[in-house]
Amino acid sequence: MSRPTKCRTICRFPPALEFAPAAGEEGNGPVILTLDEYEALRLIDREGLSQEQCSQRMQVARTTAQKIYDSARKKLADVLVEGRPLKIEGGEYRLCPGGSQFCGPGCFKRQIHQTFQKPKGDNTMRIAVTYENGQVFQHFGHTEQFKVYDVEDGKVVSSEVVSTNGQGHGALAEVLNALQTDVLICGGIGGGAQVALASVGVQLYGGVTGDADAAVEALLAGDLAYNPNVQCSHHEGHHHQGGCGGHHHGEGHECRHAHCND
Questions:
Q1: How many CB atoms lie within 10 A of CB 135?
Q2: What is the bridge-based pairing of β-strands 18-19 and 86-88?
């Protein structure tokens, strides 16, 4: 019986999951780069880490990190030489859980938590809304502000507009995690962002339009109009889980096979 593949820790989802040659120049079918292969490239080629350091961050053996990296480089060569599209999806991985288990000194979750951490009371429910000029902003991945509401005993006791400081796509879920958000109300949102929100335990109400304050009051009254199957009109995707973990939404540490988009 073969030994199961060990989950590889990745820091976050990539900000873009598909790349294609210019129109009319596309070669054969797409090359699939897995999430763990992407992470090895990011750590070694972008961050300048050694293979040993990469293996420590991904929590695998150095020889495993080397194999992942070599495979990723071969795939990139195929993309460039053959003019093929590139898609980033799948693989055996788990997301960095954050908290006291950050994946390394350069972990983006550590930086985000230092910037956005916001304490709250034990009996407080925190609701965030993608926000622009009083309205529910319609594109989660491009939101520049959240309006954050603290609710106690079913009533809003305080609210605050929080700038995302230019964070986008994959980072926004971790911003909400650092803010200790329980619920997000938004307009359009892609599949990858939904997966990222689930991994940090944020309950989603998407496809909402209109006044932000009114949307929160409607949620508290139990009559908010939302779309449980919402997808961002610009970025659609889907996600399948499997591998060495399970279906543990909200824990953010299971091993996954991923097909996702922001």
A1: 17
A2: antiparallel
